[in-house]
Amino acid sequence: MTRKTSAAIPVVLVAAAIVLVLWFVVSNSSRRVEQVMVTVEAVTAGPASGGQSAPERTAMVLMPDGRRLYARIATAEAVRPGQKAKIVVTEQLLSGTRTYEIIDIVDAP
Questions:
Q1: Residue 61: inside a domain
Q2: Is the separation of the CB atoms in 92 and 84 below 8 Å?
Q3: What do you get for the CA distance between the two ends of the chain, in Å?
Q4: pTM for the whole thing?
Q5: Which residues make beta-bridge pairs with 107?
Q6: Alpha carbon 107 to chain centroid distance?
Q7: Is residue 5 part of a domain?
Q8: Secondary structure (H, E, C), the chain
Q9: What range does the domain containing 93 cover?
Q10: What CATH number does the domain containing 44 carry?
Q11: Could you read off the pLDDT tens digit of each residue along the chain, which spans 109 residues?
């Protein structure tokens, strides 16, 4: 190898590492879009994912605009149908995919 070639290898490796880190940060970036008050219609518990010991809890919720969707339950409080709950809507920056999480129970039925 010549000196120019051997000197370029570290520069290429550093550039590749920077591109990889930037790609990872951007692809895993998300932003909070809004917080919404919803009505819980049903609660489900699915199988545990990724080393969790407890099953993942989700709830079917009724949005203010009439849509029904599933939200992951992120609060330790008991969640029951008929309750009002506060959810956070998060959007992935690259894909635009939205996720919904119940973060608080506002009142009990």
A1: yes
A2: no
A3: 76
A4: 0.66
A5: 84
A6: 25
A7: no
A8: CCHHHHHHHHHHHHHHHHHHHHHHHHHCCEEEEEEEEEEEEEEEECCCCCCCCCCCEEEEEECCCCCEEEEEECCCCCCCCCCEEEEEEEEECCCCCEEEEEEEEEECC
A9: 30-107
A10: 2.40.50.140
A11: 566 667 788 889 999 999 998 888 777 777 888 999 999 999 988 765 666 566 789 999 999 999 999 999 999 888 999 999 999 999 887 778 899 999 999 875 5
Question: Letter for the amino acid at 18?
Answer: I
| Token pair listed for 41 | 């219609």
Number of domains in the chain: 1
β-pairing, 98-107 vs 30-45, is: unpaired
